[in-house]
Amino acid sequence: MAVVITELDDDIVRSMSIGAVFTDYVGKISSFDFHRTEDLLVTASEDDSIRLYDIANATVLKTTYNKKHGVDRVCFTHHPSSIICSSRYNLDATSESLRYLSLYDNRCLRNFKGHKERVVSLCVSPINDSFMSGSLDHTVRLWDLRVNVCQGLLHLRGRPTVAYDQQGLVFAVAMEGGAIKLFDSRSYDKGPFDTFLVGGDTAEVCDIKFSNDGKSMLLTTTNNNNYVLDAYGGEKRCGFSLDPCPNSTIEATFTPDGQFVISGSGDGTLHAWSINTRHEVACWNSQVGVTACVKWAPHRAMFVTASSVLAFWIPDSNSEPADMDSNT
Question: 300: which DSSP letter?
Answer without folding.
Answer: B
